[in-house]
Design goal:
Elements: H1 9-29, H2 32-55
């Protein structure tokens, strides 16, 4: 196996910067509101299925 290659500090910095920017972007785009919509839909479906079991 070949020895590992030295990665340029510029490339390392660019990778870390892209990771941090991506995390911040994702947190802003898919914040609390995005996931609360899924939770609401999930609760609605659970209530409907519970009501269906009661009516049978």
């Amino acid at each position: 196996m070949a020895p590992p290659v030295q990665v340029s500090p510029l490339i390392k910095t660019a990778r870390w910067s892209a990771l941090i920017v991506g995390i911040i972007y994702g947190k802003r785009r898919y914040g609390k509101n995005h996931f609360s919509i899924f939770a609401e839909n999930s609760m609605h479906l659970e209530c409907r299925s519970f009501a269906m079991t009661l009516s049978n």
